[in-house]
Backbone:
């Protein structure tokens, strides 16, 4: 057969990596109480078009007064499967969605898309998420799919958001009982962190964020570990200088990791330390029963107990970390009071996304900031789950 009739010609197209949002994220951290108001006023007075997304708890916070005042006489509509409210005034819009993980759905993403359509948002215009991880994940997801990608900026308002969720470009929503099962990688162009927002955060949300701060210190930052040990009283009383210091250190640590491995091919996996045990407890106890932070903290205690039993780390290191977790009020007992069936925890751990084979892949440690990823047989894992 002559070449002209060859039906199996192969053609390759090579693509440059696509990051329609932004090639870099500019992060500003401030503990000054004037900064949020200044920023909100500068958005509202700007000639550019902004669509603000927040929830019905955050909109009531003092810091959001400029936004509330601006939209006060504006058109209001409540519609769709998610009971959201859209406010439109001049070129800007505000969407207020109900607070909570149960609204982290594809319907909410579509409500944001629909609102953007209603105000004829163009690709040059910007979504601004004001909130914790739920709001930033949802808004960035909507921004990444609206007209195949618009601009997105974040004002993070929770400890977990500031130290973790708002950094590194993972977006998404939950679906059919699966957490974050739909989503994209789409980093925000700007991230503003005003630690003053932490003063109104509930104690349980604050502690949930603290578990991730402790995790970050164990993985990457010895000085942060010392700070957590020595300044516990200041941290728990929300001392502004101390919170500024811990948030700044976490931002730096996470930024370094996602810069090296945005799409979680290797090093970013380390951030799952404590999460394989933790997620299993979270879902076995019944989603929403225990805070994410409580489960991660318990997961860290189980991972290090396993390291100790496998002679990967010293007993002293494991004991030091468990004592710190306990000092911050987390449960470190072998069996968590919320769920006591070790075999069922193990079964759930097998469904973890990180596993390539039938063995469970875990993030473990030889010592502080000495991290390893290993596949561990089931019988060994059970030794950290049973007395
Ligand atoms: N994208 C990522 O890389 C990443 C990483 C970790 C977690 N996440 C996601 O983050 C979400 C959890 O985020 P979260 O812990 O920030 O919780 P959240 O966003 O659900 O906020 C928790 C609660 O606190 C309220 N709130 C927020 N800021 C407040 C403030 N300053 N004062 C008073 N109340 C305030 C909210 O209204 C909400 O009711 C999960 O959906 C998780 O999947 C994403």
Residues:
């Amino acid at each position: 057969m002559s070449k002209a009739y060859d039906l199996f010609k192969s053609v390759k197209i090579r693509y440059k990596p696509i990051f329609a949002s932004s090639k870099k994220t500019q992060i500003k951290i401030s503990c000054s109480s004037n900064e949020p108001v200044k920023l909100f006023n500068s958005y509202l007075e700007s000639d550019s078009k902004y669509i603000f997304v927040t929830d019905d708890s955050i909109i009531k916070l003092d810091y959001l007064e400029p936004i509330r005042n601006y939209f006060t006489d504006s058109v209001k509509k409540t519609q769709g499967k998610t009971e959201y409210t859209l406010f439109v005034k001049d070129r800007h819009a505000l969407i207020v969605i109900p607070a909570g993980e149960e609204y982290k759905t594809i319907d909410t993403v579509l409500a944001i898309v629909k609102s953007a359509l209603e105000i004829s948002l163009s690709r040059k215009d910007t979504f601004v998420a004001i909130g914790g991880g739920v709001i930033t994940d949802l808004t960035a997801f909507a921004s990444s799919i609206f007209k195949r990608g618009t601009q997105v900026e974040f004002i993070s308002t929770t400890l977990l958001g500031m130290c973790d969720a708002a950094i590194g470009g993972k977006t998404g929503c939950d679906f059919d009982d699966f957490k974050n099962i739909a989503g994209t990688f789409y980093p925000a162009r700007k991230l503003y962190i005003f630690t003053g927002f932490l003063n109104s955060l509930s104690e349980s949300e604050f502690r949930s964020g603290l578990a991730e701060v402790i995790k970050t210190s164990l993985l990457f930052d010895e000085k942060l570990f010392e700070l957590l040990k020595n300044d516990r009283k200041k941290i728990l009383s929300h001392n502004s200088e101390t919170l500024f210091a811990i948030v700044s250190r976490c931002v730096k640590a996470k930024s370094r990791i996602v810069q090296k491995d945005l799409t979680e091919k290797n090093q970013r996996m380390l951030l799952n330390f404590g999460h394989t045990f933790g997620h299993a407890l979270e879902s076995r106890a019944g989603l929403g029963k225990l805070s994410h932070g409580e489960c991660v903290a318990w997961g860290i205690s189980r991972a290090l107990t396993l390291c100790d039993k496998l002679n990967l780390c010293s007993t002293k290191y494991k004991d030091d970390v468990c004592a710190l977790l306990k000092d911050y009020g987390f449960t470190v007992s072998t069996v968590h009071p919320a769920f006591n069936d070790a075999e069922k925890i193990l079964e759930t751990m097998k469904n973890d996304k990180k596993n390539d084979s039938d063995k469970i892949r875990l993030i473990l440690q030889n010592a502080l900031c000495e991290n390893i990823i290993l596949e561990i047989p089931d019988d060994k894992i059970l030794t950290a789950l049973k007395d």
In short: The chain has a mean pLDDT of 92. The first helix runs from residue 35 to 45. The first strand starts at residue 26 and ends at 30.
